[in-house]
Design brief:
The structure is a homodimer. Helices cover about 45% and strands about 25% of the residues of chain A. Chain A is an alpha+beta fold. In chain A, strand 2 (about 65-70) and strand 3 form a beta hairpin. In chain A, about 20% of the residues are buried. The interface of A and B includes residues 113, 121, 124 and 130 of A. The structure holds a DNA duplex.
Chain lengths: ~140, ~140
DNA sequence: CTGACTGCAAACGTTTTGCACGGTA
DNA sequence: TACCGTGCAAAACGTTTGCAGTCAG
């Protein structure tokens, strides 16, 4: 069970019911975009504003409570922050899968080939999920 | 030397001076965004419209003459399409480097772990280029 | 009590669209 | 000539901002 208030305090953020609910929703719905989040929030906060959702997402991105995943040809989705990992997006149904892939070797290769000092990497695969692969196109 | 008209015809696109110039500019300026492209086009096409730039980029993306690179916290940039490759973006000066990295092993790992059938991958590193690393912050 | 957050409305930047005209094939 | 592309203006879209009122600490 996630201690959401504690998480927010740890990052020196004010604990508001809206923020708690955003984190709560993202803990059970990884990879949803702003509109989906907004729609879900309406259940408990009928008068919540989209601006509040954006402001809180941005605040929590800066505090690294959340992270953002950029999806090709779709709106960014959000997830609770955790160690670096890759994503696979189904081009048919847009389902997103997380994948713990060790990029150590690739990092090394990239650093030696580029002479850059690297901080982070974003690896997103596109493909078809098993369900969409098996169904006729 | 690039046969631009031939490239366009091959993809069954009408050859217009604007399209030729867009491809021409991208052949010497990889990784520029819409605004930069628009500004460069103004030299030879003082009355070109931004809508035309967008329409042509979209058309040529669909025909796979161009490809789009999504840059975190910055506008998308464009390049002439070629084999899959990775990118490194400098977080200080935004310079973009292309890197031919073999993702075969990673693809295999991702496929077996996910059961997805994968089509493509986007790998973008963030870091500091040698110039920005050496200069005082 | 003070500062931070919320909700509303308006503003903003980017991209797309509709349309009349002009160019390509 | 028939169709497609261009340029303009307006619309659409996603996100941010300013502000007055409210809530958290």
């Amino acid at each position: 069970m996630l201690n959401i208030a504690g998480l927010l305090k740890e990052k020196k953020l004010t604990v508001t019911p809206q923020r708690v609910e955003i984190v709560n929703l993202l803990s059970t719905n990884r990879h949803i975009n702003v509109d989906e989040l907004y729609a879900l929030l309406h259940t408990n906060f009928p008068s919540i504003s989209l601006a509040t959702v954006y402001k809180n997402i941005n605040t929590m991105l800066e505090s690294e409570i959340l992270s953002e995943v950029q999806i090709f040809n779709a709106k960014n989705v959000y997830e609770l922050a955790k160690e670096e990992h890759s994503h696979i997006v189904c081009t048919s149904c847009n389902e997103i899968l997380e994948l713990p892939i060790d990029l150590q070797v690739i990092y090394k290769e990239a650093e030696s080939k580029s002479a850059y000092s690297l901080k982070s990497a974003s690896l997103v695969f596109s493909g078809k999920c098993p369900r969409c692969s098996s169904s006729k196109v």
